[in-house]
Amino acid sequence: MTFVDTLERRQLRELTQTFMAKEVLPHLDDWERAGEVPRELHATAARIGLLGIGFPEKVGGSGGDLLDSVAVTEEIIRSGGSSGLVAALFTHGIALPHLVTASDRATGDAGTGTTPAAGTDLVERYVRPTLAGTMIGALAITEPGGGSDVAGLRTTARRDGDHYVVNGAKAYITSGYRADFVTVAVRTGGPGADGISLLVIEKGMPGFTVGRRMEKLGWHCSDTAELSFVDVRVPVANRVGEENTGFLSIMQNFAAERVSLATQAYATAQRCVELARGWCQDRETFGRPLTSRQLVRHRLAEMHTRAESVRAYVLDVATRVAAGEPAMTEIAMAKNAAVDACAEVVDAALQLHGGFGCMRDAEVERHYRDQRILSIGGGTTEIMNEIIAKGMGL
């Protein structure tokens, strides 16, 4: 057994497989058409300990580290789930880490006798209920017309006594339609990265409007929404960490998100290899199974090689990140390599399925749609290339 494939992680994979077979697969097609997963699924996943994987027990999580989260993500997709399902059920993976980190820092400050950071009760109000499956959280950074320019965001938060007055808009927010609260990136200071903070804004606060449910190419079971803020008064106590430190927090948490997206990509590729292999073994043309033809066998071999190779690299990078090594460039390379391999393998898998691959009844059709967002979410391919170039000294 390697560091990645421990006995405990094998048991975690088995738990995930059981969860998928019993609670997800019989309903996933219906959720795809409904445009969301039910809130009850969060509670079920929390009850068996899956929802809190990767979060410390002291904040209501199940413990474990990044590699445990990777194991769950991989198994969800390889068991017949999808990256859209991961996005819908585990949105808290990008909504909560900022709150947990701020709480840790505040506790450390208090222990040294200095003034603790604002928001030390955010764990009790938002983190624990979310990990218990009774609340849903989202992260709101992207703005209409803003794209990848995080440092240029325009949503403002003006200090007014014990409150901030927030004005602006966010777009393409995963789980934004169902979320009970949103961790929102706002501008509390001057222009650029140094003027950004994070605020927790609850649904129902006057002036906070959740717009239409946005229809997408893929991730159909993951709801996406536009958010609007018009003179929303948010208590200063809802600030995550110190004022104007939000950009650094966002950048730090991008690492885990990008590793997750890379995992979703290689796992989707692996799943599509299995789907294509099964189809080609069963499908007969001109009296023979498709796998009797060298061209098909070699195509499947190439697909399998790409999926397994990129998995090995992503897991190597994930292991280094879990050990605390700085690996920003390697994470960017892993994400780009994984999503590129995924796109090629899924496309080939659909081609091998022929006309059936284009039907909604074909699982490969869902993966074909879902994989496209992986090169955009968490930092586009172009942004990753810029990070890689900087790592090369260019």
Question: Any overview of this molecule?
Answer:
Among the domains are: 136-243, Butyryl-CoA Dehydrogenase, subunit A, domain 2, CATH 2.40.110.10; 248-391, Butyryl-CoA Dehydrogenase, subunit A, domain 3 (Up-down Bundle), CATH 1.20.140.10. Helices cover 49% and strands 14% of the residues. It is built from 13 helices and nine strands. The chain has helices at 7-24, 28-34, 39-47, 66-78, 83-89, 92-95, 97-111, 122-131, 246-282, 294-322, 328-353, 363-370, 381-391; strands at 137-140, 156-160, 163-174, 181-187, 196-202, 208-213, 224-235, 284-285, 288-289. A hairpin with a 2-residue loop joins strand 2 (156-160) and strand 3. The chain is globular, with a radius of gyration of 21 Å. 48% of the residues are buried.
Key features of this structure:
alpha+beta; 13 helices; four-stranded antiparallel beta sheet; three-stranded mixed beta sheet; acyl-CoA dehydrogenase activity; Butyryl-CoA Dehydrogenase, subunit A, domain 2; FAD; 394 residues; AcylCo_DH/oxidase_C; Acyl-CoA dehydrogenase; flavin adenine dinucleotide binding; Butyryl-CoA Dehydrogenase, subunit A, domain 3
Give a topology summary.
Elements: H1 7-24, H2 28-34, H3 39-47, H4 66-78, H5 83-89, H6 92-95, H7 97-111, H8 122-131, E1 137-140, E2 156-160, E3 163-174, E4 181-187, E5 196-202, E6 208-213, E7 224-235, H9 246-282, E8 284-285, E9 288-289, H10 294-322, H11 328-353, H12 363-370, H13 381-391
Parallel strand pairs: 1-4
Antiparallel strand pairs: 2-3, 3-7, 4-5, 6-7, 8-9
Helix pairs in contact: 1-4, 4-9, 9-10, 9-11, 10-11, 11-12, 11-13
